[in-house]
Each structure stands twice: as structure tokens, then as C-alpha cells.
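Anyone? Bumping this.
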Amino acid sequence: MSSLTLKGVSLRVGDKTLLGPLDAKIQPGEILSIAGRSGTGKSSLLAYLCGVLPPAFTASGQVLIDDQDITAWPPERRGLGILFQDDLLFPHLSVEGNLAFGLRRSGVPAGKRSEAIAAALASFGLGGFGPRDPATLSGGQRARVALLRTLLSEPKALLLDEPFAHLDDDTRMSIRTVVFDEVKRRQLPTLLVTHDAEDVAAAQGPVIRLEGLGAIP
Amino acid sequence: MKGLPIALLLFVGVGPVVAGFMGTVLGGLSASAWHELLLEPGLPIAALLAIGTGVVSTLIALTLAHVAVAVAFSRLRHTTLRLAALPTLATPHVAIAIGLVLLLSPSGLVLRALSPWATGFEQPPDWATVQDSLGLALTLGLIVKEVPFLILVLLGALSQVPASRLVTQGRVLGYGVFKTWFVAVAPLLQRQARFATAAVLVFGLTNVEMSLALGPTTPPTLSLLVWSWFTDANLATQSKAYAGALLLLLISVAVVGLVAGMATSVVRQRWQAWATNGDRVPSLNLDGMAARNASRVALGLGGAALGALLIRSVGGTWRFPSVWPAQLSIAAWTQGISDMQRAVTASVTVGLAATVIAIGIVLAVAEALHDSPLARRRLAVLLFIPLVIPQMAFLFGMQTMLLRLHLDGTWCGVLWSHLLFVLPYAWVVLAEARAQLSPGYRIVSRTLGAGPVTTWVRILLPQLLRSILIAAGLCFAVSMALYLPTQFAGGGRIVTVTTEAAVAMSSGDLRSAASYGVMQALLPLAVFAVTAGVSRRLFTHRQGMPT
């Protein structure tokens, strides 16, 4: 069980402050919601946390997982999982291929990977979906595969970038429940970025509201 | 790290153009050279011929391409149109020109088919059906070659435009499909195709390879005149050639500016009045229009030229007015087999090397600039320069540069000169394909634990494979067609099927010219067939792949 800490994080474009300074400590299993209209730098904050902030921005502050400062680490070492509003399943790989890309080498022996993936799929109500082309899945199924892919990479913390925005009403509720249940079950510190009040309410955690600068070109 | 591929691209793809252009300017900046140039007796006519054939062929080709695309869209026949355009697109200018000579000359297939029953001719008439003094055959040749190119450019632009929804909207308002098309869709396509249109216009004004076979001779077009001065051993004539190349550049800039200006004032006013007059029925019906049939004829002539090349290359004795040779003979293929082998080897090795290098450099740069649209646009403008200025304006100077680097007349020198023209096409296909991949793929892959190299190889590259195959076919075809760059950089020591075809054509050996022409068409078509075949077998069970 780990925690995710932001210390004095602020983002700037040129000499304008876009966001921050932001201080927060997210406990295991807790969901911190960051709410605000578009253009307030929510997605840029997630890009900064992942370590892929575009060069047009400058950032200061620190990001810690437990007591480990990961601010300067490359994205692949940070141990963060991220879900976007697009599921971003890799279109050239099967469902199983996508999950295998996420599944870490450690933990599961080489000969058992396929089995482990099949079991994970079944636990998400997607038994037998391994060989399928992701393009043939429904929106809800794709969202679940994307979540599963992230979880199989054993993240220490989860970032959610409006992950339910593209889903239709019925699916949105069920996927939200699945994601939040997994967060609690695995005790993942989670940062949710959204402009949807229902998401914020369902997260049942602390909330930070961003005002921002207005529209950023 | 990021700067390295960009620096390499600029050095390889832009450097020689700048250096070559400076060299041409220095060589042409002499009062005596301009004095001699302007005293040249045929100069005004040569310039008028260049402008006339270039402008008329471009306007007609553009109209026909738009009509063909509109008709194909209204009948959901994009794929058919693309396939119909491909053979002529892949075939180099020189081969198309030779094929048209075989069709249209007084002893050509068209008159043979009509003689003697319709014309009464037992002997070929003494007509100037090709190399006519007005440049009509040259204009036709340019149209036949450029219509397929413009069609494919417009079809490519179609994916960037919500054409179906726009047309539906127009039809709901009570307009016919064609009026809607030319009011709402065609202007958007033309906006995307403006660079390509300028390139076609400049090529029409300044080409050498088509004028050689089809153009008038006394005087020839300005570009051919300048080219003949350059190949003259006399030094004084050479400086006249440098001045002539600069004159070609001035004329090109002026004509492109003038045509663009006229298009934005006259055409737009007329178009706006027509677009806003509220006239719904019948307003525009392409189904019965001559333009539609003309675009079919243009595409058909390209195919017929290829057929003529094939027949002539295996025709033995062939008396007028027989439509079919009296006997078939592979003599043209076997007699010059060692020359042919040498030329094919040079063409294929240069073409493949240029293709691989261009795709490699462009992929690296596209990766570095995938999130900088402004930098991509600026770079594209630089890369397109060789396509929108006359080739001779920088090739004269570039030859001097290659001479200093001891690369003139070498395989590497020819390769470099080809890269200048291959790189922009690789860029057009691949830079956009890379930029259109969602940035999220990279972020997801990295957070899942993959490093930058693994992410590129396993996640991004597979999604780019189809575009890479398309770029490969295009790059190889472009390299295969290059005539002047090969001549300048190869200095006659490196010969390709394209330069050999032109030599055979100039010496009047039509049968040998036809066999080189067939080879010119065959090689790029074979590469297209391979890349299309591989592309079809890739990811057959993955519907979500970018196409």
C-alpha cells in the first residue's frame, strides 16, 4: 500500500501560472477529485505527473510515491497507471495482446501469462475475449479491458483523466463502479480529473476546484 | 537528441537546394550572359510556349481531376478511380511521352487504326501531330500525366474533409449533388491541394523530359533551350544557360503569382455569385458533361500509351498502316541487354536506397516533431521548395557543389539528388500519419512500463506500417521518374532507364525507347504491387487500424 503526494506543484506557460501551487497527500484507496472547466490545466497536471509534460510548459514542485521522490524519473519507472476518456487500446494487438503488454514480467512465470490473462478477463466478465479484435468490442467492454491492462501493470497509484466521459449513461455508472471498487480493493491512491459533478460525488473523497486562467491557446 | 534528425533532414533535403540556388545565382549574375540571353532570336516564342503549355495544361488537368473526383464520389467509386489513376501516376513522364508519340505521331497507332479505310492514307501523312509548333501535343502529354497525380492528391485531401455530411446538408437544402460538391467540398479540397497545383504548374512551365519527345523544336520551349545551352561545351553558352535558369525561375514565380491572383479574384467572384444565387435545379449536372468524358479520355490515354510502349517494344517489321506488327521480335530487349541491365541496376539501387533513407529520416523527424504542428508546417515548406521551383534553378549550382565534394558522376551523387525530390513525398505521407496517432498511446505505453524505444517499435511503428508501405511505393516511383537530377548529378556516367529512354528517343530509336519505357513503367508498378500486397496481408483481423 502506497500513497501519492504532490508538494507545491505548479505549472506555467511562459510566465503565466496555469495551475498551483498544489499540495495534496492521497492516502491508499482514497480518490482525490480535481474539478474544473476545460482549459484549467487538468490534463497538463496528469501529463506532468506521468513525466510527459510537453516542452511548452514549465513545472515546479515534487511528486512522491510514499517517501520516494519520482519527479525526475522517466514515465516507465514511476509506477503510475493512467486511464483516459479514450480507451486507447492498441488497435494492432488483440485483447490478449493489449493485456500482455500491460502484464509485468515479474510475478507470473513465462508459461502462465496466457492463463493469468484469461483468468483476469473472466473476473471482469470478459471470459473468452482474449483473441478478439479490440475494434469489435462495445464501449463498456473496451473500458474494462483498458482498466484491466492498467491494473495488470501493478501501478502504485492511479490517474483518471475523465475516464467515463465518452461512455453512454448506463455504461458510465457500471464502469465507474468497477473502477472505484478496484481502487478500494487494491488500496490505490487515485487522482481523478473531471468536470462531471456525479463523478466527484461518487468518488467520496476530497475535492480541489480549479479556476485557472480561462482559455489556454 | 531531438535536433539530430532534424539537422540531418535539413542537411540532406534542403542544404543542396540552397547551395545549388546560390550557385545558379552567382553563375547567372553577369551582364554579358543576360545580354546574350536576351538577344537569343527564339527567346520570346520559347518563353510564350513554356507559359502557354504550362498554364493551359494545368488549368485543364485541374478541372478534369476535380470533375473525376466529384463523379467518383457521387457514385461511391473512389477505389475504382484510384486504381485507374495509379498506372499513369507510377509511370515516369518520359515513358508516357514516348507512349504518346507512338500513339499520336503520323505513323502512330491512332492513324493506323483509321487508315486506309477512313483516311485513305497508304503512307503516313506529312503532319506535325507531335512536336507541333503550338505545343498542343506537349499540352496533351502534360494533361495526361498530371490528371492522375491531381486526382490522387484530391482523393487524399478528401479524408480531411467531412464530405459526406456536407453533401447531405446541401441536398437537404434542395441542391443537386454536384452543385453542393463544387460549392461546399471542392474549395476545401483545392485549399489542401494548392501546393500540389503549384508544383504541377511549375513542372509544366519548366519540364524538359516531356518537351524532349512531344514539344516543338524550332524554337523549343524555354526549358529545353536552356538545357541545350547547358549541355553545350562552350563556356560562354554555359553562362547563358545560368541566366536562362534564372529567367525560368522569374517566369515561374510570376506565373504562379498571376494564376493564384486570378484564381482568388476572378474565379472566386464568379464562383461566389454562382454559389449564392439560390439556383437549385438543374444548376449543374455532370453526368452529361464533356468534362467528365474528357477526364476519362485523359486516364484512358495514359493506359493506351502504356499499351503502345509494350507493343512497340516487341514489334519487328511493322509497315504502315497495319495496326499490328508483321512479326513479334524481342530484339529490342536482347540486343541492348547489357545496357538495359546496367540502367535497371542503377535505377533500382538508387530508387531503393533513396526510399529507405528518406523513410528513415522522415520517421525520425516525425517522431521528434509529433507534438509541434507549427514546426512541422515550417519544415514542410522548406522540403517542398524543390517541387515548386524550376529544377534547373538549383540543379545547375548543385552540380558545382557535387563537383567540389567529388560526388559528381557517382552513384552517391545521384542518390543525393534524388533524395531532394523523394523526401517531400515521404514527409507528406508519414509526418501526418504519425501526428494523427493519439498522443495517449505513447503515454499509456510508457506508464505501462515500456521505455521510449520499446514504445516506438511495439506500439507506434505497427500503426504506421501501412503508411510506410504507401510512402515506399510513392518514393520509389518518384525516384524512377527523375530525369534532370539524374542527368546533372550523374553527368552521363550514371545512367538509369529514364535517361536511357530519353537518349533512345532523341536518337529516333523508337523500339529501344519503347523497351526502356516499358521498364520505366514496370519497375514502379512492381513495387506498388508488392507494397499493396503486403499492406493487404497486414492486420487483416484488426478493424481499428489507421488506413
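Late reply, but here is one note on the structure posted above: The mean pLDDT of chain B is 90.
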